[in-house]
Amino acid sequence: MSLRLVALVLGLLAALVLSLMAGAHWLSPIKVWHALWSPSATDIDDLLIRTTRLTRTLVALVVGAGLGVAGGIMQTLTRNPLASPGLLGINAGALFVVVLLVTLGSTLPIWAAGAGAFVGAGLAAAMVWWIAMRRSSQAGPLRLILAGAALTALFHAFSQALLVIDQQGLDSVLFWLAGSVSARPLSDIWPLMLLSMVALSACWPLSRQWNVLAAGESVAVGAGVAIGRLQGASVVLIVILAGAAVAMAGNIAFVGLIVPHVARRLAGSDHRHWLPAAALVGATLLLLADIAARTLILPGEVPIGVMTALVGAPLFMGLVRRQGDVNV
User: So where does this one cross the membrane (predicted)?
Assistant: First the structure.
């Protein structure tokens, strides 16, 4: 197991270097090393790496890790292998607030749109939690799924209505609709990156309790786990990780759904092992998706959300079919 984690770390490091090299103008590993450790103020390649490629690489790293771990927590919380952070209406709530802000004022700064996306994600998750989980019940996770699906549809309907009313605002929200890790100044998003790292670190103390919860609520209660507090802490972590990811990179689908399954296959069922693996796999997957997005149709660029959907949709259909076969 430890060898697999080492392999995942090495794979992530390789993806990081490749991300700094890739683009319309490919650079050598030596050039990347020079730009990071002994940059020149007048060298165009050094400026390209430090001001553009390094930022988008860091964003893809943090967003991928956050979505992978958030998806894992979501699947443990609901005991549903097909669950993902979008199930709580996080993406839909974030998009709705961004569309609303754009409709109210067309000149929306990046930091304001990002903050609005994060607030919308938190409000959506809070509403789902209040509707579905406010009373302790064995049906809580099922109510969570149903409430999240209903609220997601409602937010999408509101967003579409606003875009129909104000079609000029469509161009301003394309970033959040398609997903992208580019054109995000580090000065605007570093607080969100730091918040994501803190939330990822906070997952470790809860790993043992999630192991018990995965066996069932009755088992967890018998083991002395405070179910309500654990569920509340789980939802807060999901909101922080997935909400910050939406605020930084827009609507990126399937990462939170697929990555936990890959991590469990590689690292086993112990949360202390497969959650770190999910962070590594999610970060690597999003880095590779971004590399493909900016190199497939040069000099243009494919939205990274499209790339993750191209990979995730077939895998999702396979998971649904496998789950159906198991339930037969």
Answer: 53-74, 86-104, 110-132, 144-165, 189-206, 213-230, 236-262, 274-296, 302-320
Instruction: Report pTM.
Output: 0.88
The Cα-based distances of 226 to 209, 222, 257, 268 in angstroms read 9, 10, 27, 25
**What CATH number matches the domain at 3-322, 1.10.357.140, 1.10.260.40, 1.10.3470.10, 3.30.830.10?**
1.10.3470.10
Torsion of CA 277, 282, 285, 287, to 10 degrees: -110
Amino acid identity at 61: L
pLDDT surpassing 70 at residue 296: yes
**Residue 226: how many CA atoms within 13 Å on its side-chain side?**
7
214 and 269 Cβ atoms separated by less than 8 Å: yes
Listed in sequence order, the residues at least 6 apart from 306 whose beta carbon sits closer than 8 Å to its beta carbon are: 178, 179, 293
Instruction: Tell me the three state secondary structure of residue 328.
Output: coil
